[in-house]
Design a protein that fits this description.
By secondary structure, the chain is mainly alpha-helical. The chain contains 18 helices and eight strands.
C-alpha cells in the first residue's frame, strides 16, 4: 500500500474511534487475546485516545483477556506480560485503560470437569468446554459493566477476511446496525459491538503492526516471530479466540484442545525451537486425551442411566450404549499423569528457568476435584492426597475434607475383597455407608431416601452387559407401545410382543 494511502486509512480509523468514543457515556470493553487482530485493535484504540485532550477522556476502556488456565503456555505468558505492560503504561500516560485477566470459576475449569466429574475430552458433538472456559467469564464481566452503566460497547478484532462465513455473519449484522458502525450483540442484552478493522486483510493487519510502534512497550516483531514459530510452513495461524476460524486448519489456543485432529501449532513450536522442547510432554498428554476412550469410560451416564444409540451403519436391532464419564480409575490416571508432568517441569534441570514455576493444575482445582470425588461420587477412599504425595513427594497441602469419615483405606480395601470383584456391589455398599455416615448426625435427614434411591438406581445392575440388556429391553418395549398406539398392533399382538420381549 502507498504510504500516503496507508496513513490516510489509519488516520480515518483513529478518527472514527475518537468520534464514537466521544459520542456517548457508554464504557468500552476491548477483547484482547494476544493475537494480531486484537493487538491491532487495542493499539489503534490506545493511539486514538492518546490524541484526545485530557478532559475528553471521560469514560473507561476495559481490556479483557480470558485465560482458560489451559492456554498454550507460550501464548499465556505473552498475554500476561502484555497486560502488565498495558497497566503500567496506561497509568504513566494517564489513560482510562484498565486491563483485566479473566479466568473460569474453579468449578468450571477444564481439569475439574475432566478429572473431577469425568467429562470426556471435548469433541465436536460434545463441545462442553467453550462456554465454561471462555464465554462465561467474558459474559459475566460484560454483564457487570452493563449492570453498572446500563450499556456497554465491545471492541473486537473481527474481520470479514477471516473466512467466507465470518464475512456473511458480519454483513448480516451490519444490515441490522442501530448506530453507525455499531451492531447489537446477539447474546448480551444492552451491549453493542464495534469492529474497527472489519474491512482489513491479513496483510493490512501485519503492515500496521510492523509499521507502528507498540504503545505499551511490546515488540510486534516478537509477535510475528511467535506466529511463524507456531507453524511448520511459516504461515500465521495463531488463534486464541475460539469464535475465530483457524487459518490453514491449525489452532493456537488451549494446549489440551481435542476439537482439532492435531495440534499443529504446538507441534511446530516444539519442532522449530529447541527452547520450546519442554512442551513435548504436554503435547503427548494432549494426544493421549484425543485417543478413543470407550474402554476407560463408564457404561452409565452421569445419573446412572444407560443410553443406547444406533447409527445408520449399525444394525438397528443391535444398538450400542453411549459411554458416560471417565471411570474412577481413568480419572486417577489422568491426575497422576498431569501432576507428574508438572512435577518434572518444576524440578528438571532441563526446564527453562522461566518455566520452573509453571502450574498445570491449581491447588484450588485439586481441592474441588477431591470434593467432587468424595462428597458427590461417594469415592470415600479419598485417593487424591495419596496420588499427590506419590508424585510430589510431599503431603497434599489442600483443604481437609470429610473429617468425620470413619472408614480407613484398609477398611474399604477389605470391603472390596469381600465383594469378590463385584464392582456394582462395592459401589452400592460404599455409597450406602457414605450416605449413612453423612446423615447420622443430622436432626433432619432431608433427601435421605432420594440419595438412597439414586445409589440403587445406579448400581442395581449385575454388570455392564446386564445394564445394556435391560436398556435394550426398555427401548424395545417403548417401540411396541408406539406400534400399538399407531394401530400397527392389536391388543393381543401387543401382549404377545411384550411377553416375547420379557422372555
Amino acid at each position: 500500500m502507498d504510504k500516503s494511502l496507508y496513513d490516510a486509512e489509519v488516520n480515518a480509523i483513529k478518527s472514527q474511534i475518537k468520534d464514537i468514543y466521544l459520542s456517548d457515556e457508554i464504557p468500552w470493553v476491548v477483547g484482547y487475546s494476544g493475537g494480531k487482530d486484537s493487538t491491532a485493535v487495542t493499539q489503534l484504540v490506545w493511539t486514538a485516545l492518546s490524541e484526545l485532550e485530557r478532559d475528553q477522556l471521560h469514560k473507561p476502556v476495559y481490556i479483557i483477556s480470558t485465560d482458560t488456565l489451559v492456554e498454550n503456555p507460550v501464548v499465556s505468558s505473552w498475554v500476561k506480560n502484555s497486560l502488565k505492560k498495558i497497566e503500567k503504561k496506561s497509568l504513566e500516560d494517564r489513560l482510562p485503560i484498565y486491563p483485566n485477566l479473566l479466568t473460569p470459576k474453579v468449578n468450571n475449569t477444564f481439569w475439574v470437569n475432566v478429572i473431577g466429574r469425568g467429562y470426556p475430552a471435548p469433541r465436536q458433538k460434545f463441545r462442553w468446554c467453550t462456554d465454561r472456559l471462555k464465554i462465561k467469564p467474558a459474559d459475566e464481566f460484560i454483564n457487570s459493566v452493563v449492570k453498572q452503566n446500563g450499556q456497554a460497547i465491545m471492541i473486537l478484532g473481527t474481520r470479514k477476511a477471516e473466512s467466507v462465513s465470518r464475512s456473511k455473519i458480519i454483513n448480516e449484522k451490519e444490515a441490522k446496525s442501530v448506530r453507525d458502525h455499531l451492531t447489537l450483540s446477539d447474546t448480551l442484552p444492552n451491549a453493542f459491538i464495534y469492529a474497527p478493522i472489519v474491512e482489513w486483510s491479513n496483510d493490512d493487519v501485519w503492515v500496521y503492526l510492523m509499521q507502528e510502534e507498540n504503545p505499551w512497550g511490546n515488540n510486534n516483531k516478537d509477535l510475528l516471530t511467535m506466529y511463524q514459530g507456531a507453524t511448520a510452513d511459516g504461515e500465521c495461524p495463531l488463534v486464541v479466540d475460539t469464535t475465530t476460524p483457524s487459518c490453514g486448519n491449525s489452532r493456537f489456543g488451549c494446549w489440551v484442545c481435542t476439537l482439532v485432529s492435531k495440534d499443529k501449532s504446538m507441534s511446530a513450536m516444539v519442532q522449530n525451537d529447541t527452547e520450546n522442547e519442554w512442551m513435548a510432554p504436554l503435547l503427548k498428554l494432549r494426544n493421549e486425551l484425543d485417543q478413543p476412550d470407550r474402554e476407560i469410560r463408564d457404561f452409565r451416564r452421569m445419573g446412572g442411566n444407560v443410553t443406547l444409540f444406533s447409527s445408520n451403519d449399525d444394525d438397528p436391532d443391535r444398538p450400542i450404549n453411549v459411554p458416560g464419564p471417565y471411570t474412577q480409575n481413568a480419572r486417577a490416571v489422568w491426575l497422576r499423569k498431569l501432576l507428574t508432568i508438572e512435577h518434572n517441569l518444576q524440578t528438571s534441570d532441563n526446564t527453562p528457568e522461566n518455566v520452573r514455576d509453571i502450574e498445570l493444575i491449581s491447588l484450588a482445582e485439586l481441592d474441588e476435584i477431591r470434593k467432587i470425588w468424595v462428597l458427590e461420587k461417594h469415592e470415600i477412599e479419598d485417593i487424591l492426597p495419596e496420588i499427590y504425595k506419590e508424585v510430589k513427594g510431599s503431603d497434599f497441602p489442600g483443604k481437609s475434607i470429610n473429617e468425620n469419615q470413619p472408614f480407613m483405606s484398609e477398611d474399604l480395601s477389605l470391603l472390596k475383597d469381600l465383594c469378590e470383584g463385584d464392582d456394582m456391589n462395592f459401589e452400592l455398599v460404599r455409597g450406602l455407608l457414605d450416605i449413612e455416615n453423612k446423615q447420622q448426625n443430622k436432626n433432619r435427614r432431608s433427601n435421605l431416601f432420594k440419595e438412597i434411591e439414586n445409589i440403587f438406581n445406579k448400581t442395581f445392575y449385575e454388570d455392564a452387559e446386564d445394564a445394556i440388556s435391560r436398556a435394550k429391553g426398555i427401548q424395545k418395549m417403548a417401540t411396541i407401545i408406539d406400534k400399538q398406539k399407531n394401530g400397527e398392533l392389536n391388543i393381543l399382538e401387543t401382549l404377545e410382543e411384550v411377553r416375547n420381549n420379557i422372555n
